[in-house]
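hi! just following up on the protien thing from before. the input was this:
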Amino acid sequence: MSGGGPSRIRQRKGQPDLRRELSPDVDDDEHLDVQNPRNRSYVEKLFESEQVNVAMIVVLTTLAFALRFYKINHPDQVVFDEVHFGKFASYYILRQYYFDVHPPFAKLLFGLAGWFVGYDGHFGFENIGDSYTEAHVPYVGMRALPAIFGSLTVPVVYAIMKECGFSTIVAAFSATIVLLDNAHVAQDRLILLDATLIFFMSLTIYSYIRWRKLRYRDFSFDWWVWILACGTFMALTWASKVNGILTVVAIGIAVIIDLWDILDIKKGHSMEYFWRHFVARAVAFIVLPLFLYLSIFYVHLALLTNSGPGDTFMSPAFQETLRGNELLLNSQELRYYDTISIRHKDTRVFLHSHPDKYPLKYEDGRISSQGQQVTGYGHEDTNNHWQIIPTKALPETGRGRIVRHEDVIQLLHINTQTLLMTHDVASPLMPTNEEFTTWPKDDHSRYNDTLFQLRLVDGQEGEAWKSKSGHFRLIHVPTKVAMWTHPKQLPDWAYKQQEINGNKNVNDKTAIWFVDTIIADETGEDMKERTGDAPPKEPKSMNFFKKFFELQILMLQHNAGLTASHPYASGPINWPFLISGISFWTQTEGQKQIYFIGNLVGWWTCVIGISLYTGIMLADLIARRRDIEPLTEPVRHRLVNSTGFFVLFWAVHYFPFFLMSRQLFIHHYLPSHLVSAMIAGSVLSFALSETINYPVSVWGPRLRVSKTPTYADLGMRGPIVVGVFTLIMFIMFVYMAPLTYGTPGLDGQSVNRHRLLSSWTLHFAAKPTDAP
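and the predicted 3d structure came back as:
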């Protein structure tokens, strides 16, 4: 009989324990009070035998490896985000510093895999479609790493379901949804991060469940093994990809609920007992993961010691720790009367001026000062040259002529012999900001308006201003605005150069500049003579934690800043329904393509499973308000504790994306999809069997209640339903395989037939023809 049958309805005998209902425990053995005959069907006994269990693991694992390694050498070209993650592996081998928004663990593994198979790191991974074969890149070995992780994830899903007490056939059902999913297979066989993320997330779930099953044997050796394993795998998940932090949040919520339950005085625990559990969880879920996360970044930074493409993202102090960095090699102290070129840190334009004037009247009717234009120009030019003028008496020689942090200076434009100035006149494009212009150097009537204070970023009192490394803000003394620019171009009257204006927010992180070149000093001395034949500079040292925190802040900022549009970006509301996919790779010759999309049968089954679970729990809640018990206590607690734990993981890995403004893609849903497969299995078990396998927790000395074991019995219904489902899902998988593996190519009509939803954007589709 189905899970909602009349035989389950009974009158309530007592109020439910709400703390138990909110806990994501895998089981609640103390409250099980239903007996079940042991005369299970022969089919159920057969499937629950150890031999079948082992055989199921072997079959699932073998098929997972077969599907993920099938034609893994195709295409022999760079596919989708392999342009990024393959390149990062190269940087590890060459030990060149790079910057990325994701933590480094998965990329470190790719670097290790590349080194292991003999890759020298010199392939560029510049564009999708670049040939691996022509460059002799051992790419198959690098793709094998995520393929192994993806393959092993399938038996881990099976093991999770079995550890939660579900029948073998139900566990196989959940594993099959992952096994035969086109999206997981496509992602697992490429140099991408998600396979590593999902594998360690699944191990985190598995370890947590194994640990919770030992709650009646707390502080035993096995208990410590599994709690520490859970913390370890959680840290590796977190360190694999930026959204791995969601796994930390999910486990954190579960642990907090667990501790809240232990704190209940009705449980009879002392505060000493509570604090022992609190400290154990703090060590396993806070101290250990933080130590591992820091250690992975320590290895990351210890390997990347050479200058590389990520230098410019970092602070000057950070860059000077990298061997061969331009700031380290070419940075020189600046002296008064040096002629320099100044560049904006973010947009890379030069501070520029030319004799042309601002127009008297702008298009919006505002009036300008008609002063000399000051703009941002993207190319080398003599109009970028400025001389540093002192505003204080200087010694004839010596270090007293060096420009220092918080000095007040003037900047003289060499070609026009005018001084940089700003004043209380609105800028051309931003009425709230001040206009920058210049003033003749011999006219002292506006002297104060030409004064600027030099503020070095993180500068110390008396610190010398340096070229290249001396990032600074230029603050106008009278009006306290910072010199600033933005990418928007001025009209034709300014030759479409960038606007320079005064920003009232002097701490704006985009108001930072640096001296690009020292052109000359006041005597015309060759700049090479200033330093003489100095030996090559050794990299400077910087505290690891300073480097770590700087990197973390930049990762968060740049991840949030990924807001540019993308043709294959999609919103989270679309993901569970497979409304759209991603074009990973195309090849005109043979009309081949890889289109990242999931197995419709599996994904929609998961959606139905989540919907049914929500409906079941809502119906049970309403019925109990009317003093009706539609579910037995064992079934309810399994749905709340085991399935509820899965729902917690699904929700935490899904709903936060609705709050993000960055670019989002359907592959961000893969962790939630994995957990939704477990939810679907749980709902299937509820539908096919009135009872559950009990107990699943390991009995220990603290448990004094003795219960007769009960068993789920799916009979022939389970194998038939799961067998038919697997066949249908396999047919769908095979049908979509040309889009998953990128071979064989499809003609236009075949592409149209594979476009199962009109929202899918497949390449090489045949144009519709009018009927005769």
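Residues 42-300+578-754 form one domain.
The chain has 22 helices and 16 strands.
cheers
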